Amino acid sequence: MSIFDTAQFVISAAKLSGLPRGDAPEIAFAGRSNAGKSTTINVLTRKTRLAFASKTPGRTQLINFFGLTRRAEEGGRETVGHLVDLPGYGFAKASEDTRRTWSDLVGGYIARREALTGLVIVMDARRPFMPTDEWLIEFMKARPGVKMHWLLNKADQLKTMERRKVLREAEARAREIGPHVTVQLFSGLKKEGTAELAERLELWLGLREPAPEVETPSANATPEKND
Question: Which residues form the EngB-type G domain (predicted)?
Fold first, then answer.
């Protein structure tokens, strides 16, 4: 059983003052309201209705925490981390007050939350790097110690060459920022890329050892001769 199968709702916070104690690593999910953020969380945790999406963009203005637990050595369960569902940003129909509330809540959480270990930014692979995505990515540059994963969702709706192109361009952008930024294609509808995402987040939580680096021969290396 995956650690993400244990996800259970813990608490919702409408203000930063209502956030729970940060006693365990937190992995936050952010994304536009139509990018499939809630679906991503539900697919990852294999729960149909764990995360909810409002039909009206910008309507849900709560930070939701889901606990991940495992059996403790002394018995019972221990919390090893939290998945954090940040309010979606879809501002075409949102009021100015709603936009300001989102900016203060999400921006404040990302800027000051010490327990934040990594941020997954869910983007529509057909239209990645929208202005609000760019704002969030730029905002995250102030916290280089926090890992960032760009999840290019709805990749199943792209042709093979289009998928390769969008992934290649996103990977190039990620390299410009730093090694703490990673990218992958994903499809919440087809459940493609779920294992890759789970492995990445397990690394962030310290539940998986990183794969050993494979040494590649230098381009200038001289091959040994066989006698």
Answer: 23-207
Tokens 């730029």 label which residue? 138
CATH homologous superfamily, domain 3-204: P-loop containing nucleotide triphosphate hydrolases (3.40.50.300)
pLDDT at 227: 47
Residue 45, pLDDT above cutoff 90: yes
